[in-house]
What does this fold into?
Amino acid sequence: MAAICVFCGSSRTLDLGWLDLARLAGDQIARRGHTLVSGGGRVGMMGAVAVAARAAGGYTIGVLPEQLVALEIADLEADEQITTESLAARKTIMIDKSDAFLALPGGLGTLDELFEVWTTAALGLHHKPVVLVDCDGFYAGLIRWLSELVDSRFARPAAVDRLIVADSVPAALDAIEARLE
Ligand code: AMP
It folds into this structure.
């Protein structure tokens, strides 16, 4: 059993398919016996993943900066809801409390969180799995550009390879579980 941190979009205007993907992630994390660590808001995919995890009997931890409590609507039903003084503190606590990271489709905030855990993993500052769910080719452009960074020697292959890419939520959780055994 692990604490799995999910990074994903908080936008209120997403297509229903992305919300379904978030629900699947929350549901599967809980059914596999893991704890969910999330951004602690009720909006967008972030809210959907936490609601689905609890509906499947899972334990959820939300981490929300005080400046965003109103904007992202604090998830008051979380089993643990932590309020931080800043966005930077939010990331630090999410990282400390988690054994692995799962990035679903998202926007700038998701990318910021993903790059933080990935670059620190690539530098050897932690050894926790970092998995990107590239569902329906959402991240195909990013993945292509990253391989060009390796070709042009701006990025080391080992650093890029530290990010595990999966094409579905179950495949992503399988990859995490295999690395935590
Ligand atoms: P987005 O992918 O832009 O919808 O954002 C997803 C989540 O990332 C939201 O909860 C944002 O508040 C959060 N976020 C945005 N910027 C940062 C940051 N610099 N550090 C931590 N979380 C952030």
Notes: The CA atoms of residues 36 and 99 lie 10 Å apart. The chain is about 45% helix and 20% strand. Helices lie at 16-31, 44-55, 87-97, 108-122, 140-151, 157-161, 169-180.
